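[job 4471] stage=fold_predict status=RUNNING
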Amino acid sequence: MGEPKVTVVIPVYNVATYIEKCATSLFEQTLDSLEILFVDDCSPDHSVEIIKKTLKKYPERNSLTRIIRMPSNSGLAAVRRQGIIEATGQYIIHCDGDDWVDSDLYEIMYNKAVKDNADVVGCGFIYENQKGFEVYEKELPNIDGKSLLRSWYKSTYHMSTCNKLVRRSIYTKYGILPWAELNMWEDNGLLTRVFYYAKTIVYVNDCYYHYNRCNMKAMTSGYGIKQVEQMISIAEHLTDFFESKPDAKDFDKTVKAFRFLARINLVTDSFANLRRYNNTFKGSETIIHELDLNAFSAKGRFRFRMVKYHLGWLFVLMFKIKKILYR
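[job 4471] inference complete, writing structure tokens
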């Protein structure tokens, strides 16, 4: 039968409320040769039972669907890592267990990859909120990965692994895997290295990944100092990655951007962390005036402006007052 056209990797942990919708959207894909890998991170709920029950409705998907159980609860980076190692498809993409996809998404992305001989294919998001939805698209012309990275600081591109179809040989040839135990920003760390080696990155219109913003238990719904420290570690690893390359100077500003974007998350409600901000990645603040505002959420832009104009201390004070008022 040959290798599958696409492998989709789905982390499974405490997603019982959402996993049936996710799994159904995968089993109903119009792409025929689709390997589906559910990676169970020792989920304490009945997510796996729901997957098995849903799969029974789609017997044609049995042969290329697997449920892989991690030996212990290991976190998102380890789960994605295992999925990439286990994948056998020509291309790999990720899908979170609380999200879902358009029924023809992977067929459209795969056909585009074949047509353009692309290493990476991107698509748009639909952010699914409590009050409705919001479409996010940032179309790219056909571009090579190094060109994208060289200017990333001034035209940031969403680094999610869930809307990027990646040629599997990029991962295997260059030994690219998520860095273990670094679960926050793991996608930044992974895709930045993928882009460095990608010869052609293309984009498809009018088909979408549905990003569920109603799941308040999701990792991206909030984070604390441990997650910020993981971001800083990712930025350190990326610094080392680029410094090992002969063309490292071409990416100086993008490296500064990653370092600054990690560092600014230390500015919250703690003057101790503000001091950490001042002593972390010194010199990266020189990128502030060239940095794309789209690198920040709407709330993040306010903090960025405060820091930009040396008012980080005032932001911390306002944050403290807000926490007191809303206790």
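[job 4471] summary: DSSP finds twelve helices and nine strands in the chain.
[job 4471] exit 0
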